[in-house]
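Reopening: structure tokens for the NDP complex, inputs below.
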Amino acid sequence: MATEKVRCLIIGSGPAGYTAAIYAARANLSPVLYQGIEPGGQLTTTTEVENFPGYPEGITGSVMMEDLRKQAERFGTDIRFGIVTKVDFAIRPFKVVIDDTHEIEADAVIVATGATARYLGLESESRYRGMGVSACATCDGFFYRKKDVAVVGGGDTACEEASYLASICKKVYLIVRKNYLRASKAMQQRVLNTPNIEVIFEHNTKEVLGDENGVTGALLIGNDGVEREIAIDGFFLAIGHTPNTKLFKEYLQLDEQGYIVTEGGTSKTNVPGIFAAGDVRDPHYRQAIVAAGSGAIAALDCERYLMDVVAAGNVK
Ligand code: NDP
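Re-run output (same inputs, fresh job):
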């Protein structure tokens, strides 16, 4: 297997990864960044981003990520396609295998692998995945113009997706398992004031119904045990995310939900020289601006580590 030596390796290409790359490249750390399964990260599946400072008119997620990529490249980041398939953080330099074929030895690693959307785990849900079942309303909503759809979840994502779908679809059912929405007040208000959104509280999905052409409905069950069927063409999940930390769990300390634990206010993990940034370490805020900020922190921590520890020959 071909081996290559790198000073600063960045894994992930969301706002955290690219911001870390901009800072690391400007600090002459010659960063190499692997984009992973979803180049540009979750924001490429969003339509409009209106709350990132500096864009008074808003910007689409994919354009913003393309701009971030160009900015990272402008300062010399080596941006590559490729997926990390194995790591060894117990040895120095750290070993990271790309696509099972290429081995990298890195003095420091910034993990910015983000988080992935969750599904309910129903057999019927996986049967119709891509045939009406989706975890990204902004990616797939367009296919359901003037049709009826359902969104599952009661958080900000679910409300945001329901609002977005309501602007395209005829009717949107929001299926919420509790008797309240967990989303912020502003999002709740938006949903409750949208005439073509019907919130179905205290219901879970028992089955996604369909035929050879895809989803035709959903069978819901109320917390009182009463079943109800709705006719829909699209079934959207918005029930949270799982951090992409499987590869690292042997080495890095994770919290009970699997997010990487970092030392208060820094990007430092329990392994000196491994830093974490973005949603992979953030179960709470999950905002592009927060991820970008944490990417900057990771690059600054990494720069100090490379100067104070690696360059000074103090690696343990
Ligand atoms: P959350 O974890 O906040 O919400 C998940 C929702 O899905 C909850 O209502 C939860 O129900 C429900 N849920 C979970 N599992 C199931 C299941 N098996 N069946 C049915 N329902 C289920 O995730 P979000 O992705 O909405 O948000 C994550 C974070 O990102 C939050 O901090 C949020 O504020 C933030 N965010 C902010 C945005 C913004 O400011 N523009 C936009 C989007 C997200 P229950 O309440 O019963 O647990």
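The first strand starts at residue 2 and ends at 11. The CA atoms of residues 218 and 255 lie 34 Å apart. Marking as resolved unless the reporter disagrees.
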